[in-house]
Structures are given as structure tokens and as C-alpha cells.
Amino acid sequence: MDLTFSEGEAAFRDELRGWLEENPPDPKPESGGEAALSEWRRAWQRRLYDAGWAAPSWPTEYGGRGCTPTESAIYFEEIGRARVPLAANVLGLLLGGPTLMVWGTDEQKERYLAPILSGEEIWCQGFSEPEAGSDLASLKTRAVKRGDEWVVTGQKVWTSGAQHAKWCMLVARTDSEVPKHKGLSYFVMDMEQDAVQVRPLRQITGESEFNELFIEEAQIPDANVRYACASCSTTLWRPPPSGACSRTRCTPTRSQTCTCAASRSGCWRGRG
Ligand SMILES: Cc1cc2nc3c(=O)[nH]c(=O)nc-3n(C[C@H](O)[C@H](O)[C@H](O)COP(=O)(O)OP(=O)(O)OC[C@H]3O[C@@H](n4cnc5c(N)ncnc54)[C@H](O)[C@@H]3O)c2cc1C
User: Ligand 1, atom 22: nearest CA belongs to which residue?
Assistant: First the structure.
């Protein structure tokens, strides 16, 4: 296998290396605590964004450069080599944004992708729970449909950057009657509501990179859920490979609402 960079990859590296040398971040703040550090990283992301370097692996239609995996590896290698920080919104750029690109509606892409890329809106990830870290399917946070919204109650832990986040990509249980690895749905939850309390976990270094989230009847509009299943087995990301619903023999697709007889309120809420 030849691992030598192609001419295009070498040119990509040289362009990025040159840009990083000419555009270093402002000096790291020495006072102001974590809030100042967070603002510093946000300002750095804004500079990367203005030059088209915030997320080079994103497709060009969403503001990226459409980089190949090798170019992405070069990107992170050069960021490390230059000893500059990663963009502030790392979870939005690497997880939340790409998820919406594949599974989001046009409205969701329009609403969320640009502020993720610019760092205007920071995202955090609410998957892990006190007794469900590696074993995600054990999570207990529940989301119950009430009218046009979902009401969420539960606890999350290890939520990196939650204290700076506007949005949380949250996984919660929407159906407790199916095997535990089913009946889970993915939500985009607004962190700016009293029902969501963020408690920092102080590390031995004195920093609080991680947090606990205490969620008491948080509200999430129906437009912010992907693949909630009210009556048949829910798969978190996509319909079952056969296209058949395992409980009800309905055949939902990404663009359909399930019409199975047992459906309590239409099971397949994927829009796309
Ligand atoms: C730097 C960092 C940042 C993180 N940021 C976030 C974040 O932003 N959001 C978020 O949601 N999470 C975050 N996490 C949590 C992380 O993604 C894991 O979910 C979590 O660390 C694992 O949970 P735990 O620590 O409770 O370990 P446990 O789940 O208790 O696992 C401990 C050990 O038991 C094993 N184990 C667990 N369950 C089973 C099982 N059923 N069968 C057999 N073996 C099992 C595991 O493999 C592991 O070896 C972060 C973690 C790190 C290290």
C-alpha cells in the first residue's frame, strides 16, 4: 500500500499549514476562567469559519470543503502540529451536524447547520447516564408525547461542554414496551429552559469539562425528534433493513408515517 500523499493532498496540507502560520489564534486568556476559555475557542472557530476551515470534511453545499478522509486526517494532524485548539463546537461539527445532514429535514438543515459551523450555537451530547454509559440501551430518561411536544425527564452524565451549549442531541426512551435497545429516539433539545439544570463535574485538574444534566419535564417540539416510534419497535437511526416493521408488519420508509392497525399515533415519525 502506498501511503504517500498525492499532489492534491500535499497541496491541501501546504495551504492549511500556511494559513495556520499566518492566522494564529489570539493568545490564550490567563484569567476569566472557563467562560473566557470558551469565548476564546469560539472566536477561534469564527476565524476558521470565515476562512472556510471550520469543518473541511463537511460537504460544500453545507459550507465545508468536501474533504476526503485522508484530507480530514491531514487537517487534524496540522491542527495538532500548529498547537492550536480545535474549534469550540467540536460535538456539533463532528456529530450533530453530520447526523442532521443524513437524517434531518430540509427545515432542520436550514435552521441548525450554519450556526453549528460558525460556532454561534454550541451543541452537546446527552447520551450517557449514571447507569447507562457504555450500555446505552439501559438509559432511563423518558420522553412522553403530549400534544405537539415531547416532555422529557431523566438524568445524563459526562455531558461535555453542556455549560456552553444551546442544543443537546439527546437520546431518550419513547417506548418501554419493546426490547430495551429499541424504543429509543433522538431529540434536539433546547438547553435554555429551566427544566434543564447543568451541574459541572469538577476534575482533579480544577477544570469542569464534563457535567451532569438534570432534566425535569423539559419540552421538545415534535419537529425536533427523529424516528420516535409510538407503537412499533423503534430503530434509532433508520428503518429495519427489510423495510418491515418488526411488530406490526407495516412497511414504513423514511418519508412515510406508519399506518399499521396497532398504531397508537402513527409510529414512524421520520421525516425526510
Ligand atoms: C473524554 C470523554 C468525553 C465524554 N463526553 C461525553 C458526552 O459529551 N456525552 C455523553 O453522553 N457521554 C460522554 N462520555 C461518556 C462516554 O461516551 C461513555 O458513555 C462513558 O464513558 C461510558 O460510561 P461509564 O463511564 O458509565 O462506564 P460503564 O458503562 O460503567 O462501563 C464500564 C466498563 O463496563 C463495560 N460494560 C458496560 N456495560 C456493559 C455490558 N452491558 N456488558 C458488558 N460490559 C459492559 C464497558 O465496556 C467498560 O469496560 C465521554 C467520555 C469521555 C472519556
Answer: 133
